[in-house]
Each structure stands twice: as structure tokens, then as C-alpha cells.
């Protein structure tokens, strides 16, 4: 039962353009949603989060949007840079169980 | 550097064997989480400890066990290893007051031959 889904395994974007990574979820008990970035041979690092009571959170080039009615969130990276090339994981925290559930990740490649 | 330390970084062993993976959380963090990442898969939640007690359990096999010690470090024990257990095993810790953010170690790569 995949409660957090990232349906695009990969995304390729030109430097300077916008990268949009998408995530869908099924559990209504999630109270926080997070994005993590992972480089090869490293652990995931936290990028940005959003509370379930908000619909947008911005941090520099990164913005996360939450659409609760559609159970959908997205991460926008503007402008995209080659250093953003990594695997991005969407995650959600279950308020009841305190588990952090991850999606399968989207590999972003930003080319010059 | 997340402040979470995992050892060993790499481990190669044979089927049927048993290994122990070790994790030291960030200073002051009481929660420890274990995740498994198999090839091209997402991060699968295994188990969570809080201040020495098991808090939540995920898809952890019966051949696997874990514990958190009084000094808050944690160990993940994998026994009767199978080829399919080859994966990256991540440990993460969480601050006391949090929005759910976890700080991950660099992982232990287990290869079962």
C-alpha cells in the first residue's frame, strides 16, 4: 500500500528553467509534508516542508505547494541549476503513528 | 554533515550470515529511525525508537531486529541474510520539537553474496 506516490521516476530540465516535481498521497492523517534531496553515496537531506494547514511554503528558489482536496503536492525549483541534479523524495508524516513515509523518488537532471 | 553517524559504511557478507549496523543520533535527539533503500526503490520505513523504547514499526522482517541503548545509539541486527537483503540502510534522528524533519546518516551499504 503506497501511501505516498511519485509517479515520475525521472525529470530532465534545462538550466534556468523551472523544475516541477509532483507527489500524491492517500492518507488524510498526514500533518506535515517534506521534500528531501539525495545525492549518490549520501544520506537524504531535508529541503523544505509544509504543514497540512498551509497551501504554500517558499524558501529561496524552492517552493512547495499543497492541494489538500486533490491530495497532491509539488516542489517548484526556480531557476534550476546543475547542482540541483539529484533524487528528490517526497515524504509525509502520519500524525497518529509518527511515521515518516517516503515516496519512491524522482531523479532530476538539470542540463546546461 | 547531519550529525548522525552510521557504521560500517560498507559491508559484504554471505547468505545465512548475521550483521549488526550501528547508528549514533545527533546530540540531544531522542528518536532514531531505520530505513531500507533497495536498488531503485524508495526509502522503506523499518522501525522507530524513542528514548530506548520501540515507537513504531514498519515493514521490518522477523529476521531483523533493532534496539536503542541508554546512551541513545541504536543497532539494527540482520540475521539469516538473503540476497534480497542487499540494500542501503539509513538511520535518522529527529529533534524533540519538530515538524517531522529527520536528519539522515550517510547509510550502510550491505551486499549479500
Structure overview:
The complex is a heterodimer of chains A (112) and B (113). Chain A contains no helices and eleven strands. The N and C termini of chain A lie far apart (38 Å). The relative contact order of chain A is 0.34. Chain A has 112 residues and is an all-beta fold. The mean pLDDT of chain A is 93. In chain A, a hairpin with a 2-residue loop joins strand 6 (56-59) and strand 7. In chain A, strands 2, 4, 5, 9, 10 and 11 form a six-stranded mixed β-sheet that branches. Chain A has a five-stranded antiparallel β-sheet with strand order 1-3-8-7-6, with no helix packed on it. Chain B is an all-beta fold and 113 residues long. Helix content of chain B is 0%, strand content 51%. Chain B has strands at 5-7, 10-13, 19-24, 31-37, 44-50, 53-57, 64-68, 74-78, 87-94, 102-104, 108-112. In chain B, a hairpin with a 6-residue loop joins strand 4 (31-37) and strand 5 (44-50). The mean pLDDT of chain B is 92.
- The assigned structural class of chain A equals mainly beta
Q: Whole-Å distance between the termini of chain B?
A: 31 Å
Name the biggest interface.
A-B, 25 and 24 residues
Stretches with pLDDT under 50, minimum 5 residues of chain B = none
Give the radius of gyration of chain B: 13 Å
Number of helices, where a helix is a run of at least 4 consecutive DSSP H or I residues of chain B: 0
pLDDT averaged over residues of chain A: 93
In whole angstroms, how far apart are the ends of chain A?
A: 38 Å
Radius of gyration of chain A: 13 Å
The portion of residues assigned to helices of chain B is under 10%
Let me know the largest β-sheet of chain A.
Answer: 6 strands, mixed
| H/E series of chain B | EEEEEEEEEEE
- Write down how many β-strands of chain A occur, each being a DSSP E stretch of 2 or more residues: 11
Shape of chain B: globular
Amino acid at each position: 500500500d503506497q501511501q505516498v506516490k511519485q509517479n515520475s521516476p525521472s525529470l530532465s530540465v534545462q538550466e534556468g528553467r523551472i523544475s516541477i516535481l509532483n507527489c500524491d498521497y492517500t492518507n488524510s492523517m498526514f500533518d506535515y509534508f517534506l521534500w528531501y534531496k539525495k545525492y549518490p553515496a549520501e544520506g537524504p537531506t531535508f529541503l523544505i516542508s509544509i504543514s497540512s494547514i498551509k497551501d504554500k511554503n517558499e524558501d529561496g528558489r524552492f517552493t512547495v505547494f499543497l492541494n489538500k482536496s486533490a491530495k497532491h503536492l509539488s516542489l517548484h525549483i526556480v531557476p534550476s541549476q546543475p547542482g540541483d541534479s539529484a533524487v528528490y523524495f517526497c515524504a509525509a508524516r502520519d500524525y497518529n503513528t509518527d511515521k515518516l513515509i517516503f515516496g519512491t523518488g524522482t531523479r532530476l537532471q538539470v542540463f546546461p | 554533515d547531519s550529525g548522525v553517524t552510521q557504521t560500517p559504511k560498507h559491508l559484504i557478507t554471505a547468505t545465512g550470515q548475521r550483521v549488526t549496523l550501528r547508528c549514533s543520533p545527533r546530540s540531544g535527539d531522542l528518536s532514531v529511525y531505520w530505513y531500507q533503500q533497495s536498488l531503485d526503490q524508495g526509502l522503506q520505513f523499518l522501525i522507530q525508537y524513542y528514548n530506548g523504547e520501540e515507537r513504531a514499526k514498519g515493514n521490518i522482517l522477523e529476521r531483523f531486529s533493532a534496539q536503542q541503548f541508554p546512551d541513545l545509539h541504536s543497532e539494527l541486527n540482520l540475521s539469516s541474510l538473503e540476497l534480497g537483503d542487499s540494500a542501503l540502510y539509513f538511520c535518522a534522528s529527529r529533534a524533540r520539537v519538530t515538524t517531522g524533519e529527520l536528519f539522515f546518516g550517510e547509510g550502510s551499504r550491505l551486499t549479500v553474496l
